[in-house]
Amino acid sequence: VSRRAGRTLRPTGELTVQTAAARAAVLTSAATPGETLTLDLSRVSEMDTAGLQVLLVALAEARIAGGAARVVSPSPAAREALELAGLSRLVDPAVDPAAPGADS
Amino acid sequence: MSTVPLEEQMAAALRTFVIEADDLLTEMEAGLLALESGAGPDSEEIVNALFRAVHTVKGSSGLFGLDMIVGFAHVVENVLDLVRAGAVPVTPALVGALLPCRDHLARLLGAVGEGRTDATSEETAAGETLLAALRPFAEPAEEPAAPAGAVPAPRTSPEPPVSAPAPTGGTAVLSLRFGPDCLRTGMDPLSFLRYLATLGETVAVECLDGLLPGADDLDPEQCYLAFLVALRTDESRESLEGVFDFVRDESDIRVVMPGDPASALTEMAASHGPLAGTVATWLRELAGDPVREPVGDAAEELPGSDGPRETGGPAAPGGDPQESAPGETPLVPPATGAVRERAAATPAAARGAAENRTVRVDADRLDRLIDAVGELVIAGAGAALHSQLSGDEALEGSLGEVMRLVEEVRDGALQLRMVPIGTTFSRFQRVVRDVSTALGKDVSLVVSGGDTEVDKALVEQIGDPLTHLVRNALDHGIEPAEVRAARGKPVRGTLRLNAFHDSGSIVIEVSDDGGGIDTEAVLAKGIERGLVDPSAVPSEKEIHALLFEPGFSTAPEVTDLSGRGVGMDVVKRNVAALRGTVDVESRLGEGTTMRIRLPLTLAIIDGFVVGVGGATFVVPLDRVVECVELPSSGLTRDCMDLRGEVLPFVRLRSHFTVAGEPARRENVVVVEYAGARTGLVVDTLKGEFQTVIKPLGPLFAHVQGVGGATILGNGDVALIIDVPVLVRDAGRQPVGVGVQS
Predict the structure, then answer these.
(1) Burial of B517 (0-12, 13-18, 19+ CB in 10 A)
(2) B63-72: per-residue pLDDT in tens?
(3) In chain A, which residues have their Cβ closer than 8 Å to the Cβ of B189?
(4) The pTM is what?
(5) CA B685 from chain center: how many Å?
(6) Are residues B220 and A52, on separate chains, in Cβ contact within 8 Å?
(7) Cys staple from B493: which of B380, B478, B585, B633, with CB 3.0 to 4.6 Å?
(8) Which of these, A43, A36, A44, lies nearest to A69 by C-alpha position?
(9) Which of B412-426, B459-473, B486-500, B650-664 shows the highest mean pLDDT?
(10) Quick check: A49 and B3 CB within 8 A?
(11) B-chain residues near A56 (CB < 8 A)
(12) Could you tell me which residues come within 8 angstroms of residue B184 by beta carbon, excluding any fewer than 6 positions away?
């Protein structure tokens, strides 16, 4: 699949029910057609089910918008949450976390 | 979007947990004591209840990350599991080891209630000591903890195998659909998954996101995800289901154990509605994976076993379990049968406490309701007064009906605050056990009248005085066994707790069949202590009253328990503060009965209304002895002559700094408190009035001699006199409330 590398979003801090509403607005509307949205979770300090939901909706919205999205570099907290939920496969393993184009 | 801070949600959830866990520990204590006293055929049910209690406490603690409780409870739970399996017999030694463990859990829980989640080093050490004491009972643990597939420990009980929560060693499948609001209430499904992972080996987890809406419709605080978990575990079905006790009501949690009929998995899939196909596919895949432990034949019964795996598709073809759910042939025990069996096996002990259809209501809310109803009564009385003055008979008639209903509502509201005193009584099983063991006496507790209802506030405050009386009876009342034997009494002493209603009061009796009160010894002691004039010839009642004097104790030796002479006077003071009385009935050699008499409720009193200038006061009627006119002459300072006796009095006008000149003829309300009579000088006597006590705000906290306020039928505020305080303060300086006349 050849798509242009798109924006990288790097949510920082909690990705939990407390911040979900604010995060959802940003993360779910960031996709651009034809581009691959990168969700870098390296700075997520805490993640719960609400955070997972926002993540899943963001990925789905990117696809619907005609683009793609990937999850990279999960922090230990984010990785644990994904593993608990059986969603480790969402993480793109072949990614350089310091990819260019990070703007968030 | 309004967001309740997570800390608050968690704090609320934690509070609920502490309350519920506390209830469970109370049940546990009752259960252990019942076992100790020989529960007979019920013992199996009680053991099951004990296990469930500890298990639930452990599970819920795990959710809140309360590791100090989880670790400790885990060991206790293991021992109870062995007892349940019949591998460890119920012995007094076992109960003796388990009771302090329960107390330790209660202490840890208390710490959590105070906001501490880590054990102190003392607590850790205490816990280790207790667990060491428990270790001998945990010895057979090696066997049942054997790896998957081991034969369960032999059961000595003739329990039908159908209800056996057999260790499985296989793979359990859980379907977890949490309520939409679980995130808002601080119940993160991931916490449950995290805890489940500690109960075994997670074989597979599937996150079902098929109900997740698009970004536009997303409520980020609502839970849309469901989870399927395959867990290889030795835990029983009950254990796994117990993990979710805390969210059971709003969630759909299903657990299928190996050996459950095929229909259980089909039902599980079907329960997911539009996602049933996805679930069925996942279950098939799970069963078909040769690396993983098969879920049993059950999975093969799933429709379309040969279908390809559909990921995320809401309706996999051929995956509709509704149209092809043939698996109705039960394999081993039908799951529904097991469920029913468990439901029926609810222990009698727990039934009373937990299975009542009750609603937990914040006491403050109840108080506000009663407060409002009280005002309604008052407003109604005002309306009735106006209607009488208007002379409109039709109005008067309908208002009469309204008032009747209002009073019914008031009685109903007050009823809400009433709780049976039995809960308080049952706490004494433990007190009696511990104290009599410490004293080396054999005493049985007989409780009667536990159904007698009493105001909740009273129940909370009567516990301490009652404990004192019980300890006192055990320590001083009931004789040592050899003395009893010598006196020809049964060696085992009996302590009775009894309660009953008597003309608007509740009476609580603590009786023992001990030696009774030696009035001679009490009198001698009283004289020795300078409490009684050596020449006096007091009545028996007066001698008994000496027992409640500060610093009085007749026990020849001071014991740790109650021989310090502090206590009985405190009992009397505490009871008096509740507007109650204590009296004693005793027969030498036969026993003693201490009788506490309390008003049924603290919220309503029968008052005697008096006027001073323009101000109105209410004196609690049960304090009023008589009313006399204030003599116009012969007053020496603040004393008068009442039929030959000196009666000190308090002028309410000057005490409360009521403005205006005294009436030409003043009256004296004679009140009695703690055996002493005092006069209250007022202008007018207005008669009796049943009234709802309204507490005064913190602004008036410093005002002495006023116990509350009430609103009269005409809308005036009247202060309720706190007789004990006023009598005590009689002779001191006026306090200056500044009541305007």
Answers:
(1) buried
(2) 777 888 888 8
(3) 49
(4) 0.46
(5) 43
(6) no
(7) B478
(8) A36
(9) B486-500
(10) no
(11) 209, 212, 225
(12) A17, B4, B9, B221, B222
